Structures are given as structure tokens and as C-alpha cells.
């Protein structure tokens, strides 16, 4: 069995897409009274917007017949199955629910998730992993990069365009200076940026078909992954209240005030 | 002390938190025997908890489409009386046309899902929802329920994709509430195996742009039957009705038939008599019962936000008792109405319903929604008459919604007959 990196990618390519269940972007976040985190009970959750873009890209590749199977993966408690179902309704073929709950879920972060993805990539013999560039709850922007490192796969992060050319991937990346185009060999990890595509609305027939698609449950231990965290959250606070400003009469006063505040 | 803390938390949180949250009770004695549930004015009786995961996904996906793609268009569409024909294709792509039909490119989903879909569209505009209701319940449904296999294959997939647009011709200039008195006639010609249909239908949603018309005409045996007329047939014209102040985003017109020759293959053979059109109307009325509450919800939420934002005499309008009473009434009617619609949907899915149930809820939802919209308009004061605030558009639309598919009073008579066994439609016995 050839090592993953030497396998030629054919039309039987399999894509793993990570989807994270996060608090819906439109919700007003409230910090818990004990300041250990934010209120999540009863709050509306949905798929991370960058994960939606990742799913859309994977489904597009399947529709162009460049990949054979799209597998949606999510880590968390029972509720993440809703998020996996949404991915199935958008066109993913099957789902994997990695069960993590309770305290483990509260401390689950990019390092553990990337270990899980690396293990799954090997187990499922994936050729491509597409993730959102970051989650809107923790804004880490680490999972894609860590997963690639653990697998020793090339990575195309902040992708705004992805083109499959034989066994290579041309990725246009959005960087501070503009756009960077790279060519990486498969298997690889790609993280989706905002302008990669516009996610489709799940159609009614697809939502109903999604009911019949399979979601398999696995535990991190089955994958040989230890989900304990090396990080400890000390406290969570709301951002400081915005103070009212001060009106000044002249430019001279403005400069003085800025100097006073140590800003210049 | 514990009680006061709980109370203050409720008061503080009610402003910021608009969702149910479950938290441990503040009790000091036994470990929490119950969980405290916060009141959610957006969903006061937890309708959400009664929906299946699939229904929630359908509702959420379609709500996103409506808010992102329909809401931005409606202001100008309504102001300029422009019908966006494209929305049929967009809805077709999403699979929401004829959603309860099995096969033929349709989703085959539950009636509850149909109701949720109608509610989301009408939250944007009743005109858009009328277009959708006509296509799904008044064109696709009769072809599916009363048509031949050939007719279903010919029309349903295209209707489902929004490729062709249909309309439903029952009402006439002289016969609205009494369709049985219709004057449109269909005469059979054995030599050419066609029917010659003459007459006029009016107040027909979609007709100026329709590719096909499902027309109900009286045959020589005195029975009403349905025919599928196609644009291009000689003698068929569909002029637009001008000067409408309601449902302006949807095109309404007449169907004029001057000796139109319709091949006998276009007859819907599996029904005769008024049961045909009434079956379709009941299907549509159910959707309207849900839809009208969607419009009411928009008006309630919009009025709430406006009165929270607008400061008069140094306080938000929402601080006033008269304003709060109006909102309490709106909240109550919408909440109760939705629960009843859900029960009706479940009964229809179980095939345990009858038409009077649908009449009762169509009447209730439309009457209450119109009242809510008017109250909301009043709460917005002068701004309430500007279409930029949208409420006035709902007020005008709901006048038509309350009237079509059976007026408020006619449904009262349907119920009266069911309650007493005595009909009061006509003067005779």
C-alpha cells in the first residue's frame, strides 16, 4: 500500500469536509454570569459560515465529477448531527459524527480537532480535506494548518479559488498583499475564504434525501486521539463598554489630548 | 431574596434575550426539581419544539432565501407594480412548488412543511405567496388530483421547475362567492373531439403571464368540469387588471374565452361538479392560514422594533400602556393561530381533516392578521403610511387575502352550516 502522498488521484477521490456547529452569527452573545464562557443553552446555533463555503466547494467538485465522494465531519455532542444533516442536504454523501461531550467539548480546540481529522483522513483514505478558514466563535484559524502539518500534507489556506488539475491543486489565496497563486500536490488541505463561492440554499428534495444518508458515530478514542486540553480558560469578559467621546474646539486641543493619552 | 433575584433577571434579560434559555432555579432547598423557562415572545408556545428536524431545516433554508432574495426586491416591485416572473424559477430550483405532490419532480413533503413555506414567503409579501399558492395548490394540485397520467407528465415537471406558469379560472365578474352560478360554458363537438369554451373569468392571479390556465366551465349536462387551456389557443386572451392597490407585486387579470377550441385530452377527467374547484381551494386555503400569520408576524416584529426605537416625550413609544396592550393582543393571536395551523397540518398529513377545519383557520388567520397589520400601521404613526416601512403594504395586501379564497363572511356561513345543519347561503330553504 503506497503512502498517501504517492497515491495518484483518480476520479475516485474522496473529500473530507469539516463542519463546525457554532452560535448563529445573528445572535447577541451574552457572557455567563460565572464568566467561564458564553451562554449557549437555548441559543440558536448553525453551521459556521466558512464551513458552509467549504461544503459548497466540495459539492461543486463532485458535481463536476472531479471527486467521487464528499464526507461531512463534525466533532461534538448529539446536536452537531443537525449540522452534519445540513451538509448532507447541501449535497454531501455521508457524515461522520465524532462524539465529544461535556467538559471535553468545552475545552475542544484546534489541536485536538486537527488530530481527529488527521486520523480520519488516514482511516477514510481521503485525498482532500476542505475546512473553513476559521470558526466565527473562537476565530482561531489554526485547524487547517495543524491538520496539514500532522499529515505532512501541503496546504492551500484562505482559498478564494480552487482548480483541480490532474493530481495537483491550483489554489488562489487571499493574502494581505493581494492574491497569491500556488500549485500543491494532492493529497492536501484547503481552507475556504469568503469569496471562494456562494453556498447554495438547501433545496427541499435534497433536505428530504438527507434523511436517508448515513451518519456514523465514532469516539476520539477509537481514532487513538486524546482530546484533553493543554489550555485553561481563566475568564471570559464582555468587551469594555464604549465610553462617550469628548468634543474639542481646535486642532491644537486635539493634538494635546492625543499626547495626554499617550497616543502620539 | 431568591425570588427577587429571579424576577430582576427576567426583567433585565427580557430586553436583550429574545430566545428561550433553560437555567437552574434559584431555589435553596431541594435540588432543582424544575428548570426555569424564559418567555420567548418570538415563539411563545414553543412551536419550534413541535416541528421535526426536517421541517426546521426546510423552514430555515427557505426563510434565508426569502429574506436574502425576495425582501430586497419587494419595495420597488410593489411600488411599481412589477411582477418578477423569475421568482417562479428560483422557487422551482429550491423545490418548493407543489411540495406535497409525490413524484414528477416534486419534493413530496408534509403539509406542515407546506404551511411553513407559505408563512416564510408571506412574511415578505402576500403577493409572492399568492403566486406560489396558485402554482402549487390551484394549478399543480388539480392536474395531480384530477388529471390523466399523460397530463401529469406533460405539465407537472415544468410547473415544478417554474418553467411554465399557471393560473386558476373559477371566479367570474358576476359570480364570486357563488361559483355554482358560473356562466362560462363548455360545449362538446363530437366531430373534432374538442370542447368549445366561452366565457369570462376575473381576478385571476398570474393570468397575464400564465402559460396555462386551469379553467372551470359548465358542461351541457350542467356539471362543472376543469379544462387546461394553453396560451396561443385561438380566442384566449388574458388582459391585466389595472388600478389594483393590493397584491401589486403579483400580476392579476382576466381570462377571456371567445369560442376557444380545447382538445378533449385537456379535460381533467377524474372530477366533476364543484368538488373539483373546492378541493383545490381547500388546499390553497390551508397555505393561506399559515401565510397570513407570517405577514402578521412581520408587522408585529416591525412595530415592536419601531416603538422601541422611537422616542417621544423622552421615552420609547413602547413604554406606553396603549402600545403594550396592542402588542400583547398581537402576540396572543399569532401564537394561538400558529398552534392551530400546526394541528391542522398534522391532521391533514394523517388524512383526518375536513374542509370546515380549513375554513375556520383561513378565516381566523386572515381576519386576525388584517387587524394586526392595521394596528401595527397605527403604531408607526405617519411613517406607517410609507412603503419603506413595509407595514402599509401588508395592510393593503391583507384586504385581498381576507377576501379571496372565500371571504371572511362566507367562511362564517360554512361554519354556521356545520354547526347548525341549516344553510344560510341562499334565501330559499
Question: Percent range for helical residues of chain A?
Answer: 25-40%
* Rounded radius of gyration of chain A (Å): 21 Å
Largest beta-sheet characterization of chain B: 4 strands, mixed
Oligomer: heterodimer
* Low-pLDDT residue spans of chain B: 1-30
How many strands, which pairing sense, and closed or not: the largest β-sheet of chain A?
9 strands, mixed
Structural class of chain A: alpha/beta
Keywords (chain A): Electron transport, Mitochondrion, Transport
Protein name (chain A): Electron transfer flavoprotein subunit beta
Pfam families (chain A): ETF
GO molecular function, one term (chain A): electron transfer activity
Question: Top keywords for this entry?
Answer:
heterodimer, A: 264 residues, alpha/beta, two-stranded antiparallel sheet, 7 helices, 11 strands, globular, B: 429 residues, alpha+beta, 4-stranded mixed β-sheet, 4-stranded antiparallel β-sheet, 11 helices, 50% helix
3D architecture notes:
The complex is a heterodimer of chains A (264) and B (429). Chain A is of the alpha/beta class and 264 residues long. Helices cover 27% and strands 25% of the residues of chain A. In chain B, the strands form five sheets. In chain B, strands 5-8-9-12 form a four-stranded mixed sheet, covered by helices on one side. A four-stranded antiparallel sheet of chain B has the order 6-7-11-10, covered by helices on one side. In chain B, strands 1-2 form a two-stranded antiparallel ribbon. By secondary structure, chain B is an alpha+beta fold. In chain B, helix 5 (126-146) packs antiparallel against helix 6 (149-161) and helix 7 (275-309) runs parallel beside helix 9. Chain A: Heterodimer composed of ETFA and ETFB. Identified in a complex that contains ETFA, ETFB and ETFRF1. Interacts with ACADM. Chain A: One of its GO terms (molecular function) is electron transfer activity. Chain A: InterPro entries: ET-Flavoprotein_bsu_CS, ETF_a/b_N, ETF_b, ETF_beta_N, Rossmann-like_a/b/a_fold.
Amino acid at each position: 500500500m503506497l503512502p498517501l502522498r504517492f497515491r495518484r488521484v483518480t476520479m475516485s477521490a474522496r473529500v473530507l469536509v469539516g463542519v463546525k456547529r457554532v452560535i448563529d452569527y445573528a445572535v447577541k452573545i451574552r457572557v455567563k454570569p460565572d464568566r467561564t464562557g458564553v451562554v449557549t443553552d437555548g441559543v440558536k446555533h448553525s453551521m459556521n459560515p466558512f464551513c458552509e463555503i467549504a461544503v459548497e466547494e466540495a459539492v461543486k467538485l463532485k458535481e463536476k465529477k472531479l471527486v467521487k465522494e464528499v464526507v461531512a465531519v463534525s466533532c461534538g455532542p448529539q446536536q452537531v448531527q443537525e449540522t452534519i444533516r445540513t451538509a448532507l442536504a447541501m449535497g454531501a454523501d455521508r457524515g461522520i459524527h465524532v462524539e465529544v461531550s461535556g467538559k471535553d467539548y468545552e475545552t475542544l480546540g484546534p489541536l485536538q480537532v486537527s488530530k481527529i481529522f488527521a486520523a480520519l483522513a488516514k482511516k477514510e483514505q481521503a485525498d482532500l480535506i476542505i475546512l473553513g478558514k476559521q470558526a466565527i466563535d473562537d476565530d482561531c484559524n489554526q485547524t487547517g494548518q495543524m491538520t496539514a502539518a500532522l499529515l505532512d500534507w501541503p496546504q492551500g489556506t484562505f482559498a478564494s479559488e480552487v482548480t483541480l488539475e490532474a493530481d495537483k491543486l491550483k489554489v488562489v489565496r487571499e493574502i494581505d498583499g493581494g492574491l497569491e497563486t500556488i500549485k500543491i500536490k494532492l493529497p492536501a488541505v484547503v481552507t475556504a475564504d469568503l469569496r471562494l463561492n456562494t453556498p447554495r440554499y438547501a433545496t427541499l428534495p435534497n433536505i428530504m434525501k438527507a434523511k436517508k444518508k448515513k451518519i456514523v458515530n465514532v469516539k476520539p478514542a477509537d481514532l487513538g486521539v486524546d482530546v484533553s486540553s493543554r489550555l485553561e480558560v481563566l475568564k471570559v469578559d464582555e468587551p469594555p463598554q464604549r465610553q462617550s467621546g469628548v468634543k474639542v474646539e481646535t486642532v491644537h486641543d486635539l493634538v494635546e489630548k492625543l499626547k495626554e493619552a499617550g497616543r502620539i | 431574596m431568591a425570588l427577587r433575584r429571579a424576577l430582576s433577571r427576567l426583567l433585565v434579560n427580557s430586553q436583550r434575550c429574545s430566545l428561550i434559555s433553560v437555567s437552574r432555579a434559584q431555589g435553596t432547598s431541594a435540588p432543582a426539581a424544575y428548570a426555569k423557562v424564559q418567555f420567548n415572545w418570538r415563539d411563545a408556545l414553543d412551536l419550534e419544539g413541535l416541528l421535526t428536524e426536517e421541517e426546521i431545516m426546510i423552514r430555515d433554508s427557505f426563510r434565508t432565501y426569502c429574506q436574502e432574495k425576495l425582501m430586497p426586491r419587494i419595495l420597488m416591485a410593489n411600488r411599481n407594480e412589477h411582477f418578477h416572473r423569475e421568482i417562479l424559477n428560483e422557487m422551482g430550483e429550491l423545490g418548493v412548488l407543489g411540495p406535497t405532490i409525490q413524484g414528477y419532480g416534486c419534493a413530496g413533503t408534509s403539509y406542515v412543511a407546506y404551511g411553513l413555506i407559505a408563512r416564510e414567503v408571506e412574511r415578505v409579501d402576500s403577493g409572492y405567496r399568492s403566486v406560489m399558492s396558485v402554482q402549487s395548490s390551484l394549478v399543480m394540485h388539480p392536474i395531480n388530483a384530477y388529471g390523466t397520467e399523460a397530463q401529469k407528465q406533460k405539465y407537472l415537471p415544468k410547473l415544478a421547475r417554474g418553467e411554465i406558469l399557471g393560473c386558476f379560472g373559477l371566479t367570474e365578474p358576476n359570480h364570486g362567492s357563488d361559483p355554482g352560478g358560473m356562466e362560462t360554458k363548455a360545449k362538446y363537438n363530437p366531430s373534432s373531439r374538442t370542447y368549445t369554451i366561452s366565457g369570462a373569468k376575473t381576478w385571476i392571479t398570474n393570468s397575464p403571464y400564465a402559460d396555462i390556465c386551469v379553467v372551470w366551465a359548465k358542461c351541457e349536462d350542467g356539471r362543472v368540469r376543469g379544462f387546461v387551456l394553453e396560451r396561443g389557443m385561438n380566442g384566449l386572451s388574458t388582459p391585466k387588471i389595472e388600478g389594483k392597490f393590493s397584491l401589486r407585486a403579483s400580476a392579476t387579470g382576466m381570462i377571456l374565452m371567445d369560442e376557444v377550441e380545447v382538445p378533449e385530452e385537456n379535460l381533467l377527467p377524474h372530477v366533476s361538479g364543484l368538488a373539483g374547484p373546492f378541493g383545490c381551494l381547500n388546499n390553497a386555503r390551508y397555505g393561506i392560514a399559515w401565510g397570513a400569520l407570517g405577514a402578521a408576524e412581520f408587522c408585529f416584529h416591525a412595530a415592536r422594533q419601531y416603538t422601541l426605537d422611537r422616542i417621544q416625550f423622552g421615552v420609547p413609544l413602547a413604554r406606553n400602556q396603549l402600545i403594550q396592550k396592542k402588542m400583547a393582543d398581537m402576540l396572543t393571536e399569532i401564537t394561538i393561530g400558529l398552534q392551530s395551523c400546526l394541528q391542522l397540518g398534522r391532521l391533514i398529513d394523517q388524512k383526518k381533516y375536513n374542509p370546515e377545519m380549513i375554513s375556520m383557520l383561513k378565516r381566523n388567520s386572515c381576519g386576525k392578521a388584517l387587524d394586526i397589520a392595521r394596528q401595527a400601521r397605527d403604531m408607526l404613526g405617519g411613517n406607517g403610511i410609507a412603503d419603506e416601512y413595509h407595514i402599509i403594504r401588508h395592510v393593503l395586501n391583507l384586504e385581498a387575502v381576507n377576501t379571496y379564497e372565500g371571504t371572511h363572511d362566507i367562511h362564517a356561513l360554512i361554519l354556521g352550516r356545520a354547526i347548525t345543519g341549516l344553510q344560510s347561503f341562499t334565501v330559499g330553504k
